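Here comes a specimen:
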Amino acid sequence: MKTFHCNSCNQQVFFENVLCERCGHMLGYVYDLDDVSAFEPDNNGFWRSLDARTNGRSYKQCQNYIAEHVCNRMIPTDDPEALCKSCRLTLTIPTLSSDENREYWYRLERAKRRLLYTLSHLDLPIESREENPETGLAFEFLENQQGEPPVHTGHSDGLITLNIAEADDAYRERTRTRLHEPYRTLLGHFRHEIGHYYFMRLMQEGQLMDECRVVFGDERIDYGEEIERHYKQGPPANWAGSYISAYATMHPFEDWAETWAHYMHMVDTLETASACGLMLAPSNPSEPSLQVEPVDTVTRSFSEMIERWFPLTYVLNSLNRSMGTPDGYPFALASPVIDKLRFIHKVIRTQGQASEHMQEDSNLRTA
């Protein structure tokens, strides 16, 4: 993710911030700028952006910003919608009978906005249920109810369901430990489930599908049987030589989703490192080094990505160990896993190029 600054005082701020702690200006994310802007009240009950690119345009807050304090999105004043694009994708929210549920909802929406930011920067299609009632993207955030079947995080035809308990750090850590997982985060859940969605959206029968089956295996094998086998027998003893995680060994669908999520971890982290100007110049030439590069080159080439990724994870883990915390990157990438990541990159780049060509054709027809 790129870095953000207050337009009033140039203080560095974060993607989720609603207030500049230095100058006190309200902050909000503006879609048409793809940036966080500082605001001041106008004379009509709205908010005027201090970003020079808006020429003093006024905006209104998303309703979930004003009333619920779980969003920081701004909407043009002439937009008939009360909710921003991100909040409109959420079909079901938790019952707000407790402060814990409200906090969980906030954390879920915060992670979802970061997910959508990366999807947009990868030029991936984000089609809502309003645009496509059958398979458009939507989210529901549910909690376990006494006497009812447990809520399972998952994806079905564009609808992504998350158990709000995953937003509880203590619950999530207990689950991670019980399942012997090295990594389990709320953002990771979103990225995994969106991987299932894009398998449905992007992978069609044809050349890429044939290649996908060579890389990940045949997804037509019975899902239920493979899941049952996994929970009875566990992952293969040598799974780390071919899979990003033990969970990925269940079925080609899960292998794809786990690899997709990992690719998104890489893209976002590399973009952040570049935006911050991170450089590694060790005194010992045998240690990993990293040069500063423009943000927009990070995902141009997979070879470039993976070449930058290894030294970055080395320093990330070293810093975490200095703080006495677990490795921020508890993974090892075997060659077959790198090949899977490379294929994910190819699929996303192919989609992006197709979108560019469609836009060019549309512009020509308009002209």
